[in-house]
Specification:
The structure is a homotrimer. Chain A is of the alpha/beta class. In chain A, 34% of the residues lie in helices and 24% in strands. In chain A, helix 3 crosses helix 9, helix 4 packs parallel to helix 9 and helix 12 packs antiparallel against helix 13.
């Protein structure tokens, strides 16, 4: 007992129910209640755990007690066998003092020094995992997470009343198991208010403090990006908080160069932060998953699969449902049905994207939405540029590691941002000339295709040289870039002779090519990039405004240069004009792709070309990014 | 020894071979056999483990023994070093009493109370798993399954003579490991007859008793279904038996609404029963796998994959090969090649289906075949309706949990069963109005599409509210139903303008639509459902007999209303008439789909339509189920 | 100390730095260096671990020592507390003798007998695996591999300075864990030269010795194959070495009959060798993976995936990158881009193939290339025939197990090798008649299709009866062969009526068939085999030279009989003549397949047929193998 004892005989202690015999002392007085009447006296409780006898001989002659009666007693003696002897105290002029057990609550971070001790822990249940043997509760306090094990019966859930995300008090012995510290639970209680609220507040405060992003200086001075830094800090804060709360993160990103420049640094930053905050070496595998998206938006199939995985992990490993982090994807109306599906579960969503956003559709479903258009900027700030800053706000260990990445991102998306020259200079200082940066961008594209929907972690790390091997990087990039170039040449050899040209009403050059008939199927580059390459050649060749359409059986890829298109508007108009054509699509304003019903292909293309022929020419719109 | 000893000197014991020195006593007499002749006497065996010397000095003068001679001896003394001294007994007027070792065979269910004891177990080897360290034998007796470990050398198979499914006697010490009880094997012997047969009989009897299905009352009184109850009880019995024998179950089901209403309750029931009968929390993951089928029948590819998985699990985890449970699939001739493939391995097959069956083809390969047609009923008894009853016969914990499921199954398959009103009433009492039930059915369909061939356990549980979360269910179903409806509308917008109409010879309205040309490819709903939705609109629109054909490059989906088609017959006729068209197909009588060689598409369609034009109209055939 | 001590007072020992007090003895003399000067004397070091005092009273009057001074001392006394007392020795006429610690280095294979002892191990770090608890170093010496565990902090990498493939000295206690022997590391040091080089040499020598292939006699006497035996022995040596060095092997093989006859025996041989050389029962799962290839060559996608898996295993399990073993694939120029990609990583490549090779393209990237063409032989020596010999060189346990396999391989590839009759006789002696061998070949083909890109280990083992179950084999093969035949008949029923015939300039019969239009799509047999079956029928039907072309939208399968085609040359010519057609292809000289851009299909076919019409007829070229 750590409280000081009073000698004042007028003091009567009221013991809290969990007090043990450690909380009493001969000569002290306690509030007691009769719990049994026997021939030779009455038994009284002074707490849940402390009882004793008031012998008949010590009672007043006329005394008569019934079970449930309250009285005041003084502890007269503790017998050798531990039995307690109380004497009744007359009168009612007492000062009552509450006495509760003063736990010495241990911080998780100190457990390693207390192996063999019985300790008290207080925290939130971050995971409940039933093994074939014991049940494992992972309990998180302000300083860390400790596995606490309880055994009821082999494979049987112990303490079924204790749920994920409850706040609890654990009593148990600290032991080591295969080198890890764990607590063998003697008792675990769900805390009630006010203790519960108090603890939750403390945990939240501790998390909030530790979630505070790293203070960074931007890699380059760039007013356009500065306006987004607060938004990025908020995303960094939420991601760090998510890690600290042991909630898994599922990262979905656009499967192209900019998407990888965005996702790989954030992945590395989160892995570093997980390593720094979780004892378990496997934590980063459980808590973070990076997945390229199949489509240029978040498809319902992907969301269904993500949800399904999350629910299975919850059921099988007692994990929280994940947070979804969308990178270089996620800002458009096409993403919202999938978001809405996740909204029915407890799955927060964060978006960092530079595609033309539809905040009205998206914002009701997401917890953060960072997009340059929301700050009056545009796609020239690529997602990779933003995410390099984001990664640096998440982990302090990245300084100097990412200097080349914004330039790669910019080249990948052909960004004409003012800051490109600064980024190129920064990359140059880090040992990357522009040609090599361009090679990285091509190599990323090529690997993205080869890996399909596998994240290809280690390999991509080498290609981008973020968390990879520098020597391999220098070796691998030129090789892959050359393979990519050869493959592009092969595709162009097949396609170029079949590209059709016409000059349309607004004097733009219109090129069309059937990318399924006149290109190698299922080979790199895919129709989108093949169209882009043709387009780029034609832009250089003509030096005039160019529109290029790569047509497939139920899709068309659109590229334009020097023409003011509004693809979202065209999609909407085509839908009105051609009922039954089922036109949909997306991308940037002047560059994107549309889908339609195969049987309406000719009608859709005719109508589309008519619209394009009417579009205004605009010198400013040259060399826009590819989606 | 627990038997009482006789003082009657005329008694001679015949010891069973496994008796040890515990089974003998000085002064008792035993049948013995000479196993060695030495200068100073002969050595005799009284059991495999008990031998001793008959000293020359104790023999009759003229005695002469050879190895193999039988005699009767009395135990004269046990020396300090354990050596036994026997004396020969003359005469032949003995009463022979058999004495065998009286093991105190421990029941598996009592092991937890005997930690530290050396015990005897008898049972069947249900699994042999070689780990990097010891070999683990899982031994099953009448009361449960115990892991028994033996260590020969790291990673080396101990007791290679003991195989899966042998019956064995184990001697070993009970210990706990990570909270689980296990037996460290001192000795394990394969039992010979008669002990082996006796034990197998006892195990079989115990399994038979525990496999007896739960006594249930049907959810609604329905004579048509009552006829099937005995068949379903037999399936329930076999499934419970399969669980008790630790044989894995692989469940394949039709990937549609009725298929899920059939499979999800049976899955839950089996999981509950596994939990109740297996200590290991992971058992349900090892013993049960639910998989939607790709095709409307059991394809050879699926069977090959199932077999391959089963063989790998056998090789790697020492598991038995699985039992195959086919639900809402499996009754047709098209399933038989796959069944025949499994027949070459020890894989029992159970079928519960309501598609038009071909018992002659199917029954030779299956252990049970439940189908309403086999009882003079038809597809109106959906598989979901049957399987809800089946699930309740498997697990007693399901009461009240499944009241809404038969109605969903009926709506999914548009059943016109008389009992539909009772099922709808039952669901209404459980809080489900018809519109909501219909929404569940649409939501299931939508999720089945989104999940492709993933079982999507937890998510589907929520959608159907079987083993799921009620709150989420109420929240999720309207959302998914609405998404499904939007997607259907989008598909119909594209398709409807291109539906072609003609009136054929029998006055039916024939509608045809190219579902690849005039629908969104690879998007929900797939061609089958798209055709169905068009058909339903046309039925309502015309109020007359309608046939709808959704045509693809190598398939056609057929829907009819008010026309007496016989699709299996048409397929057979088309095959005769159009050699080289490769027509195949299946489904219900009046609703189904056919496949053909792409180059013969026009000829097949022409011939098909001709046949349909000849079909009889029939007022009774309205609103048939979709496959 | 095991070295003998000298009494010669002129001897002065120079102790190696790692000597402990075990290496010294009172009365001996040592080279020492002053490490501290105090009031009462100087402290000297005689090794890193051994220091002591030279007391002032024992020094010459005029002596004056500074830190760093060298002197010779004699050990005068060892005090009770272990302190050492040295006396300086005057003079310089000494014989210096080096004394180093004589570890009793334990061999891994002896550890099981030394549980509880502290031992020294020396070897190469074959794997570094970080668990949630300790770090596990798997240390390989000349006799085996031992897991050595070190605990720094839960989940934290211990001894981060020790890397994969370092050679190390481990001191630690031998213990058993779940029956496996392991060493709990007290200290682990990376060895420096010369000790490192010495150890590496010893390990290499030991590996080289153990890697020496099994001495075998060929299954049949066949001069053509004899020329390849040395090459095969070299591959066997490298594979055994790879296993001994714990490097994983990734086996890619052609997904057809010959490919399986090649890969399954080698897989079994390697598994047996792994079992014989690795304690861990799981080793074969970690060290060997067999994968059928999607394409008839090693695609960049496959290489990317293989690389990605290898890198992930390296990152997660600390494994070495794999060796790639190409079987019945890998000899052609089309394989080289993928090889080049792997070349950027430390991934050795071995090739055994019988397709027309391009050694100039291939050999720069591979460590071994076995191909009959490189020895003046041709495709008639199938890869299966070669690999049966290879397997027998890897594992001595295979004798008699593979006698039927070369015949199956030969029949699968329709080999007209002289040795076929010997192989058929060998198989007959093993109980296989020709019809049954043919059935095996058809069954393999069928299973290869059904399994797609799954290796289907156990199932294929049964079909081929290599490491499978004989009884099942006998049962399964006729069943699968019959299913395959039925499926072929069904495909031919659809295709045959649509086969077009013409007689071309060289008088050969040319048959063409659209294999996508007039065959069942996505069903067995695939276009290649369907074309082959049509071809075979036409060869028999006409008895004349036949060319058959199975055409798809962007490919054509070519079969010829009695016509001297040179497919690689035709591909090259077509590419020159038809820019934009993107013709590519491969296979054997007279049998193969080409790919092209769909929009150029007619032009390509016309040009192709023209070339074929010009080809020379050649009686010798009948019944060539199918690719």
């Amino acid at each position: 007992m750590s409280d000081s004892r009073s000698d004042d005989r007028s003091v009567v202690y009221r013991l809290s129910p969990d007090c043990t015999s450690d909380a009493i002392e001969v000569g002290e007085r306690y509030h007691a209640r009769v719990n049994g009447v026997v021939e030779y006296g009455v038994f009284v409780d002074v707490s849940k755990h402390v009882s004793g006898l008031v012998h008949e001989s010590d009672m007043p002659e006329d005394a008569s007690y019934d079970v449930g009666d309250d009285l005041v007693v003084e502890l007269a003696a503790v017998r050798d066998n531990g039995d307690l002897s109380f004497e009744p105290v007359a009168g009612d002029d007492f000062e009552t003092v509450e006495r509760s057990v003063q736990y010495d609550v241990a911080a998780v971070e100190t457990l390693a020094d207390r192996v063999g001790d019985t300790v008290h822990l207080e925290g939130e249940v971050a995971q409940v995992k039933q093994t074939g043997g014991p049940t494992i509760f992972r309990v998180r306090d302000e300083t860390g997470i400790a596995p606490c094990t309880a055994f009821e019966e082999a494979g049987v859930r112990a303490y079924p009343e204790v749920d994920l995300e409850d706040v609890v008090h654990v009593t148990g012995e600290v032991e080591t198991r295969e080198g890890s510290v764990q607590v063998e639970i003697e008792d675990i209680d769900v805390l009630d208010d006010p203790a519960a609220t108090d603890l939750r507040d403390r945990l939240a405060a501790a998390v909030a403090e530790r979630a505070e992003p790293v203070e960074t200086e931007p890699l380059v001075e760039w007013p356009a990006l500065s306006g987004l830094r607060n938004d990025l800090r908020e995303v960094a804060r939420q991601l760090r908080k998510t890690v600290l709360e042991s909630r898994p993160i599922r990262m979905r990103h656009h499967a192209d160069g900019d998407g990888m420049c965005a996702s790989v640094p954030v992945q590395l930053a989160l892995e570093q932060f997980i390593d720094a905050t979780h004892q378990d070496d496997d934590a980063k595998r459980h808590l973070l998953k990076r997945l390229p998206s199949k489509a240029p938006y978040y498809e319902m199939e992907d969301a269904t699969r993500d949800l399904n995985f999350g629910l299975e992990d919850q059921a099988r490993h007692g994990q929280k449902l994940p947070l979804l982090l969308m990178l270089d994807n996620g800002s458009t109306e096409e993403d919202t049905p999938a978001y809405e599906a996740l909204d029915h579960y407890d799955i927060p969503i964060l978006v960092v994207d530079h595609h033309h956003p539809d905040p009205e559709a998206v914002d009701p479903f997401v917890d953060a939405h960072v997009n340059p258009y929301l700050h009056g900027e545009d796609y020239r700030i690529t997602t990779g540029m933003m995410c390099v800053e984001l990664a640096r706000m998440i982990s302090p260990e990245l300084d100097g590691e990412l200097d080349h990445v914004p330039a790669v991102a910019g080249l990948s998306d052909r960004s004409k941002a003012d800051a490109m020259s600064d980024y190129l200079a920064l990359a140059r200082d880090a040992g990357y000339d522009e040609e090599f940066l361009h090679d990285i961008s091509e190599a990323l594209d090529y690997e993205a295709y080869m890996l399909r929907y596998d994240s290809g972690a280690t390999l991509v790390n080498d290609v981008l040289n973020v968390g990879g091997d520098e020597e391999r990087h220098r070796d691998l990039v030129p090789f892959l870039a050359e393979k990519a170039e050869t493959a592009v040449d092969r595709q162009l050899d097949a396609a170029m002779p079949h590209v059709e040209h016409r000059t349309v009403a607004n004097d733009a050059n219109l090129y069309t090519i059937d990318v399924e008939e006149h290109a190698h199927r299922f080979q790199y580059p895919a129709p989108g990039k093949t169209t882009g390459e043709i387009h780029d050649e034609k832009v250089v060749e003509t030096g005039e405004p160019v529109i290029t359409i790569g047509v497939g059986p139920d899709f068309a890829v659109l590229r334009s240069d020097g023409v003011r298109l509004d693809i979202p508007q065209m999609v909407s108009d085509l839908n009105d004009e051609l009922p039954g054509a089922g036109v949909s699509g997306g991308g940037h304003l002047v560059v994107g792709s549309i889908r339609f019903v195969p049987g309406m292909r000719e009608q859709v293309l005719d109508a589309l070309i008519e619209k394009m022929a009417d579009a205004e020419l605009d010198e400013e719109l040259r060399s826009a990014p590819t989606r």
